Amino acid sequence: MSEEVHLRADELDALEALDFVRLMHDEDAHAVEAIAPHLPDIARAVEAVADRLRAGGRLHYFGAGTSGLIAAMDAAECPATFGVAEGTVQAHTALEPGQEDDRILGQDAARSASLRPGDAAVGVTASGRTAFVLGALEEATARGTFTVAVTCNPKSRIARGVDVAIEVETGPEVIAGSTRLKAGTVQKLVLNMLSTTVFTRLGHTHRGRMVGVVAANEKLRGRAARIIADLAGVTVEEAMRRLDDAGGDVRAVLAGVRRA
Predict the structure, then answer these.
(1) Annotated catalytic, 33?
(2) In this structure, is residue 164 part of a structural domain?
(3) How many CB atoms lie within 10 A of CB 246?
(4) Would 13 be classed as within a structural domain?
(5) pLDDT per residue over 72-113, tens digit each?
(6) Are residues 175 and 119 located together in one domain of the fold?
(7) Is 100 a catalytic residue?
(8) For residue 121, which phi and psi values (nearest 5 degrees)?
């Protein structure tokens, strides 16, 4: 779908900047709305992934090009945001020219990841036909791993044989084939929903706060202190002292408050 030419494509070169960005904004809004019918599928994936991580499994993303970068971004944020161990969420990507067309490379990536039946594998591809991702999910299926496809091309090859297919039809891009636009936005939003809901259900947040945040720099240290101050009913200064005493562990501070 993203390869099709937009209905207003022939007008674009002559559009004023405001009209151009208004068109893009409208297209983005339609793409976000297109996710709504697929929320039950996203929820199914969340429950299955949470069950596996609760039992000690891991979440693996596979993607190429822009989709791979989006997957890598989501995986990279999980340790800092939720305090999960490194390796709990992993991204396996094909970013070099030609790699996305290599099905065997995808199979090898899945083998190198040592996928297990207790893991979950999410393939991210706007077109739904990226060979690297197809190969990875084929290997994941062969290993008994729970599989999810995230694509913007309904009825594409990748949806066949996976446990859950999340197929959000975003339609033609403003610039034909540029899947970093609407398709990229939708893939990012779907992965946001997946990882955030999974780790909330696993107790890595509390009352909508990032209690698993890793205070790895001054910005995050300040955020952690404000979370403690808010939930424990103390000043930020007192929260900072308690945070330092607990070695930067927000949950340890709050556990002490609950025991008291």
Answers:
(1) no
(2) yes
(3) 18
(4) no
(5) 999 999 998 999 999 999 999 999 999 999 999 999 999 999
(6) yes
(7) yes
(8) -120, 125
